[in-house]
User: What shape does this take?
Amino acid sequence: MSNDEFRAALARLAAGVVLITAQEPPLDEDGRGEDVGMTATAFMSVSLDPPLVMVSLRNGSRMDDLLDEQPLWAVSVLAASQRHV
Assistant: This one.
């Protein structure tokens, strides 16, 4: 993602809501981990180069614990039409 694309994406987030998602590790070798998600409003840009963001989570929450062990996670910026999410 270029700096301009990163800046443009974050410019769309005035005081919005984001969806943070990650996948828990599988319980057995043949299984697939559970998808976990949460909404958050405490999300902000930290740096453009490199592109870094920060999200605030409740200490000890399920998502906090998951992100401690899961290096891959995603953030989706929600539009007003996605209030149902």
In short: The chain has a mean pLDDT of 85. The longest strand covers residues 18-23. Helices lie at 3-11, 62-69. The longest helix spans residues 3-11.
